[in-house]
Amino acid sequence: MSVLSAPHFHDEQKAYDFVEAMIWPKGPVCPHCKATARVSKMQGKSTRIGTYKCYSCRKPFTVKIGTIFEASHIPLRIWLQAIFLLSSSKKGISSNQLHRALGVTLKSAWFMAHRIREAMRAGSLAPMGGGGGIVEIDETFIGRKPGAAMAGGGTAHKNAVVTLVSRDGEARSFHVAHASSDNILPIVRRNLASEAKVVTDDAGYYRNLNAEYMHAYVNHSAGQWGRGEIHTNTIEGYFSIFKRGMKGVYQHCSEKHLHRYLADFDFRYSHRVRLGVDDAQRAECTLKGIVGKRLTYKAADKR
Q1: Are 28 and 36 contacting, i.e. CB atoms less than 8 angstroms apart?
Q2: Paired sense of beta strands 197-201 and 214-218, if any
Q3: What is the pTM of this model?
Q4: Cα 80 from Cα 82, distance rounded (Å)
Q5: Dihedral sign, Cα of residue 117, residue 118, residue 119, residue 120
Q6: Using an 8 Å Cβ cutoff, are 38 and 56 in contact?
């Protein structure tokens, strides 16, 4: 049976029940006053699906309040379909494809995709490389900065991205103004455990890591690509998926939205099948990140 045959993808009440079970595992919680005791479901014939009333603060609410679904007129079952499609597509899915598949306008599909990417964005995370794990670090360049002219085939006109990939499977990517030690090393220090083993290429940005971490590098300039466990093949594999998705699926991404697309690829890479997470579980992980991530269209269009 198709995964998309699940009841919560087709029935609105089932969709609310599914989201409530994920967000409120111990029962409904009022988003206004956080009460749990004096809360009951409204049963009137004209009451909207999924509406509760808190008798502590006297306000009605649904599970959508305070999430990426808030104030959206798109049915919740369509949102769940969009979350599954975006979470299960290895190289992403375009707004045009969502627009055609879900029967919503292109503008709505674009906005839904950005809201879902907000849900994928991780909050405070434990340092990578704890217990002496190996973390590969590298930078890549994508797209084109607004108004920047190409200069002799260099990368100054492109958006710089720094990524850390743990051999355990996690990826974290960051958009930086330009690739330099001043921009890269603070990110590395914030995200690495002190006992981490670091592997990079021979770029000069990483030379100062020798004094802080157990650091090894491969000399790509001399045609060296690896020696034993000293290689950057893992992060190169990540960049391969990222660039194929950005060029083949999304085709264009403005600099102001790049951080969300990075979250998109980081999330799927860190929750992939090889780590024991299938498509349905990945979609559920996305759903668990919807709280506190409300994004208005105005904010999405400007940021």
Answers
A1: yes
A2: parallel
A3: 0.90
A4: 5
A5: positive
A6: yes
Count CB-CB contacts under 10 A for residue 169: 15
Can you list the domains of the chain with their CATH numbers?
3-123+290-302 (no CATH), 134-270 (3.30.420.10)
Condensed to tens digits (0 to 9), the pLDDT of residues 187-197 reads 999 999 999 99
Going from the C-alpha of 127 to that of each of 103, 189, 248, the distances in angstroms are 42, 9, 32
User: 244-270: per-residue pLDDT in tens?
Assistant: 999 999 988 888 899 999 999 999 999
How open is the CA angle 252-254-257, to the nearest 5 degrees? 115
Report pLDDT digits (tens) over 127-185. Answer: 999 999 999 999 999 988 877 766 666 788 899 999 999 999 899 999 999 899 999 99
Q: Are the CB atoms for 171 and 165 separated by under 8 Å?
A: yes
Q: What is the mean pLDDT of the chain?
A: 92
Residue 61 contacts residue 32 (beta carbons within 8 Å) = yes
- Strand-pairing partners, residue 175, are 161
